[in-house]
Each structure stands twice: as C-alpha cells, then as structure tokens.
Design brief:
The chain has 167 residues and is an alpha+beta fold. It has helices at residues 2-34, 89-101, 152-160, and strands at 40-46, 52-58, 63-68, 71-76, 79-88, 105-113, 116-125, 128-137, 142-147, 162-166. The longest helix has 33 residues, at 2-34.
Length: 167
C-alpha cells in the first residue's frame, strides 16, 4: 500500500508538470500568434513645385513598394495592384472638377485620413475597369493620382496600407 501511495504521488507530480508545460506551451503559441510584426518601406519624392512627399507602405501583409522615374508601385505576390504619379495642385484641381462633371467616373468614396484627403472612383478605360484614387497631401501643393486595374476590394485594401506626408 505504501508503494501505491508513493506511486500515486509521483504520478500526480508528473501529471502536474505535464499540465504546467502544456499550459505554458499553449500560452506561448497564443502570444506568438497574436503578435503581429509591423514593417514598412518608404520613398521621399522631390516634386517640381519644391514639395518633398514621403510615401510609406505597411509591408507587414506581404505588400511591396517600388519606384521608377518618380512613379511608385504597390505589388502583392508579384502582381501590380496600384501605380501612382504626382500631380501639381492645378492638375489635382482639374481632376476634382472632372469628377464632379463627368458621368463616366463613379465616385465610390470621398474621405480624409491622416495627412490626405482622397476620392476613390471607378472609371471604364481602354484597359477595362479602373479603380482609382485622387489624393491631396495636406500641408503641400501636391496631389497624387493612383490607378489600379485590380478589383475594387484589392485596390482599396492596398491603398489602406499607404500613407503620405509632406516632409
């Protein structure tokens, strides 16, 4: 009988240690899964009006930012989702006037966030349905035209990973 009690106590300690290790492993797994590491990439562009516009992309969801000759691109899994060019204030205003007077542009959303005001619209162009953005960077004299041939949701999601600032 004495042997059984020792065996039972020893067995209980092993189960207790196993339980503690299991709970610890489970907590570490949950903590690791809930931690999301943020990463970003940015470029600062010198605009011909003297503005310095910084474009930053949150890359933690697999998006990539590149630029060539002053045109920036956002890609995901090697597919170009967005391409952006900078506009002088006068050109930006012409685009905004056009959005109010033409029936070929369907406004999906007009809003402000962080350091930009933007208009998200659809337009049927030569390459098909475009989901585009006209942006004005606050504190600057610069607009941005961002074009996308990707679907509406893909374009908006990629756009939501971008931020702009006047440096």
């Amino acid at each position: 009988m004495k042997h059984t009690k020792k065996h039972t106590a020893k067995h209980s300690r092993k189960r207790f240690r196993f339980g503690v290790l299991t709970v610890t492993a489970l907590l570490l797994t949950v903590l690791t899964a809930s931690c999301k590491f943020k990463s970003s990439k940015s470029y600062t562009f010198s605009i011909e009006n003297g503005d310095q516009i910084k474009v930053t992309l949150d890359t933690s969801d697999g998006y990539a930012l590149s630029q060539k000759d002053g045109v920036f691109s956002v890609t995901s899994q090697e597919e170009t989702i967005l391409e952006g060019v900078f506009l002088l204030e006068e050109t930006y205003e012409q685009y905004m006037e056009l959005s109010e007077t033409t029936d070929s542009m369907v406004v999906l959303e007009e809003d402000e966030r962080n350091d930009v005001s933007y208009l998200f619209y659809q337009f049927v162009g030569e390459a098909g349905m475009e989901n585009n953005f006209i942006i004005f960077v606050k504190g600057s004299h610069t607009g941005v035209l961002i074009g996308s041939l990707s679907g509406q949701d893909a374009a908006k999601t990629a756009f939501d990973h971008l931020s702009f600032s006047c440096e």
